[in-house]
Amino acid sequence: MILLVVSASVEIPTIRLRRPFFFVSLYILAVGEGGHKPCVQTFAADQFDDDLPEERRVKSSFFNWWYFGIVCGSTSGVAVLLFGQKYVGWAVGYAMMAAAMAVAVVLFLAGMRFYRLQGPLGSPFTRVAQVFVAGVRKRRVMEENWGIYCEDGDAGTLDRNLARSRQFRFLDKAMFIDSKDASSKTRDPWRLCSLNQVEEVKLVLRLIPIWLTCVTFYVVQAQSNTYFTKQSSTMDRRIGHRFHLPPPSLLIILGLIIATSVAIYDRAFIPIARKITGHPSGITVLTRIGIGHFLSVVAVIIAARVEAKRVAVAAGNGVEDDPKAVVPMRVWWLLPQYVVLGVADVFAFVGMQELFYDQMPEGLRSLGAAAYTSALGIGNFMSSGIISAVQGMSLRYGRQKWLVDNLNRAHLDYFYLVIAGFCSLNLCAFVWISKGFVYKKLY
Questions:
Q1: Where exactly are the transmembrane stretches of this chain (predicted)?
Q2: Nearest CA to 283 among 211, 358, 351, 349?
Q3: 20: number of CA atoms within 13 Å, CB side?
Q4: Residues 330, 233: Cα–Cα separation, whole Å
């Protein structure tokens, strides 16, 4: 953040020097976020003791309020930068963000003596590799002839035991004790693995298909930062006679919708659903994510209908050839798609946080947090790929590209419908995968 302040405040002689300095600052910020986000959430969730029923119950609400804090922080940041750059400049806006980060670091360090610290468990990647190597080395060993190695003798492992599952049974061979293992005085970890170790690998494998379907959810989310904002820039954004909303300011409204939805979900929806289903969290995590997927499809269909209406209004008023013209249609027409997308985010994103924390092995929980976070970035790249494919196909089989600079002459509504169809197929895949998903069981 300090480098961003410098890039915006210090006079740099040429644009050729200013631009690289600015982008290097962004890359450093991205690397810092990549290391910070997965670890800080996992560290915060580890403050709850799963062996205590009350703390285990509260942990589900923790993920809701954790996301509430993230949304409030990011929304405040957008508001400060948007209105700060208009009245006091970019440098002051970035400086305020840097000061907020400094305060956050001080507060974090102030609580050091109160935190619950987990001991190191060794390299989780080594444990995963050992299961695959042992499974290959014992691929011809039959279960009925040998016993199973259940004890986990590795130092630092947790006391909880995972129940044996019936999925990915080819990995079970890694824990079978054959004649060579029985005659050996010491256990070779690359030839004989424990039941816990094998089940940890199965947990990771079960989450991979879920993660792939979650990537597609962020294709819809990417539109809120791009084409939703582009739509708003062509519409009437007046509030009263003097104030005009900047196009990106609708992201602030989206943040407020998400924050409000989180509070309603945690304080109203969960207690009601808990009474109906008897589930501690009201509904299962996969059900929550599935509802989010469904609502994202609804949001993009609404966006397509609103865009078709906007183009019709532009044509009816003779401004379809003027890309800078303000279409006589209030920007609040976009509010329904923002509302539905915000609610979808509360269901899907928070559900992903909880799933990838709870269902990952203890030693890989930071990787689980990184997995759902990486889905956001990959979803944005996938959105760019879909745009390129749509542009190529529409130019090849139609008279012009669907997506052009002048939205009044574009077919953004068609593009939204393509995304809706793509996400509908993804929803079907998610439902099919979820039916066969086996939750982690401890004994």
A1: 65-84, 90-110, 243-265, 285-304, 338-357, 369-394, 414-433
A2: 351
A3: 4
A4: 11
Closest CA to 355 of 421, 424, 433, 428: 433
The pTM assigned to this predicted structure is 0.85
In the prediction, which pLDDT does 302 show? 96
Instruction: With both helix axes pointing from N to C terminus, report the angle between 365-397 and 195-225 in degrees, rounded to the nearest 10.
Output: 40
- Tell me the C-alpha distance between 203 and 223, whole Å: 32
C-alpha span between 298 and 386 (Å, rounded): 19
DSSP secondary structure letter of residue 235: E
Do both 13 and 135 map to the same domain? no
Of 90, 117, 144, which closes a domain? Answer: 117
Q: Which of 297, 286, 300 is nearest to 347 (CA)?
A: 286
List of the chain residues with pLDDT < 70: 7-17, 86, 120-121, 143-147, 149-160, 443
Identify the residue whose tokens are 């079960």.
206
Question: Smallest Cα–Cα separation from 136: which of 111, 161, 170, 164?
Answer: 170
The answer to whether residues 294 and 365 belong to one domain is: yes
Q: Are residues 138 and 217 in the same domain?
A: no
pLDDT of residue 366: 79
Tokens linked to 31 = 């690397």
b vs e for 322-350, b when ≥16 Cβ sit within 10 Å of the residue's Cβ? eeeebbebebebbeebbbbbbbbbbbbbb
Are residues 240 and 385 both part of a single domain?
yes
Q: Match 């508001």 to its residue by tokens.
A: 79
| Same domain assignment for residues 219 and 184 | no
Q: Taking the CA of residue 317 as centre, how many other CA atoms within 13 Å lie in the half-sphere pointing to its CB? A: 14
Give the three-class secondary structure for 24: helix
Q: Could you give the CA distance from residue 163 to residue 369 in angstroms, rounded to a whole number? A: 24
Cβ atoms of 403 and 391 within 8 Å: the answer is yes
